[in-house]
Write a structure and sequence with these properties.
The structure holds three protein chains of three kinds. By secondary structure, chain A is α/β, with parallel strands linked by helices. Chain A has two domains: about 190 residues, Rossmann fold; about 130 residues, 3-Layer(aba) Sandwich (Rossmann fold), CATH 3.40.50. Chain A contains 13 helices and 15 strands. In chain A, the strands form four sheets. Chain A has a five-stranded parallel beta sheet with strand order 2-1-3-4-5, with helices on both faces. A four-stranded parallel beta sheet of chain A has the order 7-6-8-9, with helices on both faces. In chain A, strands 10-14-15 form a three-stranded antiparallel beta sheet. In chain A, strand 11 and strand 12 form a beta hairpin. In chain A, helix 3 packs parallel to helix 4 and helix 9 packs parallel to helix 10. Chain A starts with a helix and ends with a strand. About 0% of the residues of chain A have low confidence. Chain B is about 75% helix and about 5% strand. The C terminus of chain B is likely disordered. Chain B is mainly alpha-helical. In chain B, the strands form two sheets. Chain B has a two-stranded antiparallel ribbon with strand order 1-4. Chain C is mainly α. Chain C has a two-stranded antiparallel ribbon. Chain C has a domain of about 220 residues. The chains are: A alpha/beta, B mainly alpha, C mainly alpha. At the A-B interface, helix 1, strand 7, helix 8, helix 9 and helix 10 of A face helix 1, helix 3, helix 4 and helix 10 of B.
Chain lengths: ~375, ~290, ~350
């Protein structure tokens, strides 16, 4: 018995250690070391279904940091990028903030992806006086909660009514059913959208909600189908969005789909397939945008990341990081002055000149996009 | 009324998938008395392997390869994470932790090999819709139901009509006596574990075509649902696992019609009630009190 | 040894005795040394390690509390995160609506103890694997209720801006000061658990674990003791939840899923039932991922491998409990007069934790 145990124990050791060693060696090969650089962190989903977005944050930040490092860094110190995976989970975002707050050489954080993750982490960054810039979250209250919180995306209070206006007035959709993700982003979008749509004379025939990460929406969609709407409004992130669009089609709900700008991901087209056809939404970045700043950025991006297509968050992450680095130079790496300098910044980046409204809501131009033949097509109004 | 009927159909379809997962759980539990927490991870790994094959060939080849790969993986898990502990007569809790560890390793291996992205399942079966009286259905749904029911029938035959099945039943009854009568209990354990894992992979592939995607995160809840279904029907009973899965699927969909956000809670409430009121499940035999 | 084969046996035995004596001396030394280290910790190491120290303290409380149910009473409980969650939410909601921290902390314990009572009741009818599944289900249901009771809990968005802990006018704002608060609660918990398990209640719990039927035959009110263990365990886990909420300042239902329960169970099984074991289990499972942080996700691979290998080689935990002691108790229970459950329940060991919390 004991010899057999020893044999099988040895088997267990081999079977558990072989993958560990192989993968460990792979990773160790990639490890890097540095001197005494200053650090900027990306805290975003790097694993899980939203990992694509986190990678866009990292790419955008890298692009801006490499530019500054190529010019010798800031005050002779190189800038280093730290990445932390929050899996788009507010709890992880908070505990990462707790950890990052202890780093004395950290000058700013890019993140989180969702409004909920940003709300969870900002009180902790504020205590440590570290600025947090979110390239994607759009909750209108976000910039108000702390002077250390900045957001690069237009507020929901601005873009959701614009979308409602477009859907009801321009496209003549009068009976709407809404399905939204139950979190800060989803609720705020639903509120602003429904309010505006109703004021324009549309009726809301159905409202359903779901949790971030759900995979099965058949129950909600079956109920919505029974209400016979003209259009289905999907307020969600793109993975769930793709599933909802597909499951709506299989359930025989073939009406027009209206969505939030979160759907503008090449991955969405792959996931949703034919169900993506005809969906429209508003966003603020499109590669076909003729503005020279946008075209400049796309050229730069393709030079640095051949084979990758620039997505909206590449642009906002790049702008956020470049802006932060400009401020760091300006304040001579004095961490206590970063927030104030950032609030008063004059900056022009990939998306043109940027300014903050009262309450630090960003002011930018919005554009409408429709999916035609499996491509995101710019809609000229 | 038609809303309820449609939910009923949805419930039966997804319930048949739960049944398959439950069958795997039930088989493994009845023979090894191990709660296999790596079941969901094996399901996901098998599905992702099957998906890669599917993209190059077709759905059925993908299904077969997924089952084979998962079977092999299951055998590995049994040999590395359970067999040594059994030899040592380790406590139940230790075996349970060991399967959690194995599940974690499989999850990470899947992450490293396949990346974190949610992967779309190409439309590999015709999505043709048809109506059967008031009920709408699609070929995909019919295929899911067909594969699940077919496998259950096959399993029933395997366990009741073959030599291997006899060996399994003997081992469940009394491993020591079985060994005395020439049954290689270790091999039976490993093969049963492999069989249960293969069933999980098939369930994963069916979920893939149903939801049109494969995602690393789906394993845990899928495993739990299979588990609940197994307990619901009576752990260790093949018809019980089938019935438990279908009942869970229907109960979830009907419950979700009124309270959509408590959909997953339905499964756990059923679990608690069943365990308190009738722990042997719908079709299980009353537990023998060991004194 | 080789030179003197005849003296082999005696020598070895003597060697063993002295080794055991050495170990006892070491063990006696380890305690005070550990206490000294724990107390001076924030002065010795970086902030980041103190941060980990806070987490380890919180998880040691959780592990200790689960040990009452699993380690001593031998009941498989897979929903411990539910009590942790109830405590965290009770404390956070109270302080967010303006109540003081001490009230939040107390309420956390009480609410979680009620949860423990509810989960303990099924243990009257169910045991082993079935009880494990019931507790797992309870944990998931608590999580789903927190997730869906939007008007109270803000659902998946969680509670933000939870105020820092404040006692007697002092705010535990810095990591180091919070570390001492966590350590204080841990010490109180450890003291309470120690008194409880060394009382007749503890003996009854161990008897239930070793052989429930025999324990019942001896006249132990097994149901009462099991429910009691669950309730006290819930109370202590609730305290840990309150600490966590006020430390991280943000909680959401996803913080308290089954993964969290499994983590606590793993810590319990890894360490063994003692205070040292609990601390070791908690520290190991929190530190292993941190040590391998540079390896990003791959660290979970190590984690999984560590779990399997530990279970293969040390299935009873790193510091297994002293079986002999319990065997003695059993023999006494079998041989001597039957222990009445309610009598021992009313003993001093039972009252201690409730008062100290």
């Amino acid at each position: 018995m004991s010899r057999r145990f020893r044999l099988s124990a040895r088997l267990a050791v081999v079977m558990t250690l072989v993958p560990v060693l192989v993968l460990g060696a792979l990773v160790a090969g990639c490890a890097r070391r540095g001197g005494k650089p200053i650090r900027i962190a990306v805290a975003a989903p790097l694993t899980g279904s939203m990992a694509v977005v986190g990678q866009q944050f990292v790419d955008g930040a890298k692009l801006a940091i490499d530019e500054v490092n190529a010019q010798g860094g800031i005050n002779g110190r190189k800038v280093e990028l730290v990445t932390q995976d929050d899996r788009n989970d507010p709890k992880e975002a908070a505990s990462i903030a707790q950890k990052l707050s202890l780093d004395k050489d950290l000058y700013g954080v890019l993140g989180g992806y969702s409004s909920s993750a940003s709300f969870a982490s900002i009180p902790i960054y504020e205590k440590a006086r570290i600025v947090e810039i979110t390239p994607s979250a759009s909750h209108p209250k976000l910039p108000e909660v702390s002077k250390y919180m900045f957001r690069m995306w237009t507020g929901i209070d601005v873009y959701a009514p614009q979308l409602a206006d477009f859907a009801v007035t321009k496209r003549g959709l009068k009976k709407l059913a809404v399905i939204y993700v139950n979190n800060d982003f989803g609720k705020a979008n639903r509120d602003y959208f429904v309010q505006k749509a109703k004021s324009l004379g549309a009726t809301i025939v159905g409202e359903e909600t779901f949790l971030d990460g759900d995979k099965d929406f058949k129950t909600q969609l079956t109920k919505i189908k029974a209400a016979r709407p003209d259009a289905l409004v999907i307020i969600s992130y793109y993975v769930e969005g793709a599933l909802i669009a597909q499951q709506a089609r299989t359930a025989g709900l073939t009406v027009q789909i209206v969505s939030t700008g979160t759907f503008m991901e090449p991955e969405f087209l792959k996931l949703a397939g034919a169900a993506a056809e005809g969906i429209f939404f508003n966003t603020e970045f499109h590669p076909d945008d003729p503005r020279p700043t946008v075209q400049d950025f796309i050229k730069k991006f393709k030079g640095a990341f051949p084979g990758k297509d620039p997505a909206p968050y590449h642009a906002t992450s790049y702008d956020a990081t470049a802006m932060l680095l400009q401020v760091l130079k300006q304040v001579n790496l004095d961490r206590s002055k970063v927030a104030e300098a950032l609030a008063n910044i004059q900056f022009s980046g990939a998306e043109g000149p940027i300014s903050w409204r009262a309450g630090k809501g960003i002011v930018k131009q919005n554009i409408f996009v429709e999916i035609r033949n499996g491509k995101f097509v710019l809609v000229t109004q | 009324m038609s809303l309820l009927l449609e939910q009923l159909v949805n419930g039966v379809i997804i319930g048949s998938v739960y049944s398959l997962i439950a069958l795997g759980f039930s088989l493994i539990f009845s023979i090894l008395e191990v709660i296999n927490f790596a079941h969901g991870s094996i399901l996901v790994m098998g599905t992702l392997i099957g998906l890669v094959v599917l993209q190059r060939t077709n759905f059925w080849v993908g299904l077969l390869i997924a089952a084979l790969a998962s079977g092999l993986l299951g055998a590995l898990v049994e040999k590395a994470a359970i067999y040594p502990l059994r030899l040592r007569r380790a406590p139940l809790g230790a075996q349970f932790i060991s399967t959690i560890g194995a599940g974690m390793m499989i999850d990470i291996a899947a992450l490293v090999i396949f990346g974190p992205k949610t992967r779309p399942f190409p439309p590999s079966l015709p999505a043709t819709q048809f109506a059967l009286g008031p009920v709408r259905g699609s070929v995909v749904e019919l295929a899911i139901l067909g594969v699940s029911l077919g496998l259950m029938a096959l399993l029933q035959v395997l366990v009741n009509r073959t030599r291997f099945g006899k060996a399994i039943r003997a081992t469940v009854q009394n491993p020591r006596a079985a060994a005395m009568f020439g049954v290689d209990v270790d091999t039976v354990n490993t093969l049963t574990f492999a069989l249960g894992s293969a069933l999980a992979a098939v369930a994963g592939m069916l979920m893939g075509v149903y939801y049109n995607m494969a995602d690393l995160g789906t394993g845990f809840l899928a495993g739990m649902k299979g588990f609940v279904a197994a307990v619901f029907g009576g752990i260790g009973s093949i018809p019980g696992a089938v019935l438990g899965g279908l009942a869970l699927g229907v109960a979830e969909d009907i419950g979700a019609t009124w309270l959509s956000s408590y959909r997953d809670a339905v499964a756990f409430i059923i679990l608690i009630v069943i365990l308190l009121v009738r722990p042997q499940g719908i079709l299980g035999h009353p537990e023998r009190q060991k004194v | 040894m080789r030179a003197n084969p005849t003296g082999l046996r005696r020598r070895t035995r003597a060697g063993k005795v002295s080794a055991a004596g050495y170990l006892t001396a070491l063990r006696k030394g380890v305690g005070p040394l550990a206490v000294l280290l724990a107390l001076t910790f924030p002065f010795l190491v970086s902030q980041y390690l103190v941060h980990l120290g806070v987490l380890i303290s919180i998880y040691t409380i959780l592990t200790l509390s689960l040990n009452l149910v699993s380690g001593y009473a031998g009941q498989l409980a897979l929903g411990h995160a539910a009590f942790y969650a109830l405590g965290a939410y009770a404390s956070a909601l109270l302080t967010l609506s303006g109540h003081p921290f001490w009230l939040g902390l107390l309420a956390a314990g009480v609410v979680a103890a009620l949860g423990g009572l509810v989960v303990g009741l099924p243990s009257l009818k169910s045991s082993g694997f079935y009880l494990g599944m019931i507790t797992l289900g309870f944990g998931e249901i608590v999580k789903l209720v927190l997730l869906n009771w939007d008007s109270l809990t803000r659902g998946p968005m969680g509670l933000t801006n939870i105020p820092p802990a404040k006692l007697w006018g002092y705010t535990f704002g810095s990591v180091a000061s919070f570390y001492y608060l966590a350590l204080l609660i841990l010490a109180l918990t450890a003291g309470a658990v120690h008194r409880l398990v060394n009382s007749r209640v503890g003996e009854a719990l161990v008897a239930i674990r070793e052989d429930e039927v025999a324990a019942k035959a001896m006249g132990i009110d097994t149901g009462y003791h099991k429910v009691l263990a669950f309730t006290v365990s819930g109370f202590l886990a609730g305290l840990a939840g309150s600490l966590y909420a006020h430390y991280i300042s943000f909680i959401n239902p996803a913080s308290f899923g089954s993964g969290e329960s499994f983590l606590i169970v793993s810590m319990t099984l890894l360490g063994g039932a003692s205070l040292g074991g609990s601390a070791l289990g908690a520290a190991t499972l929190l530190l292993v991922p941190e040590v391998f942080r540079a390896l990003a996700d791959y660290r979970l691979l190590f984690y999984g491998a560590v779990l399997i290998l530990l279970m293969v080689f040390r299935p009873n935990g790193l510091i297994p409990e002293r079986r002999l002691r319990y065997r003695g108790i059993l023999e006494r229970l079998r041989g001597a007069e039957p222990v009445s459950g309610r009598d021992s329940g009313a003993g001093p060991g039972y009252r201690a934790p409730a008062e100290e919390g």
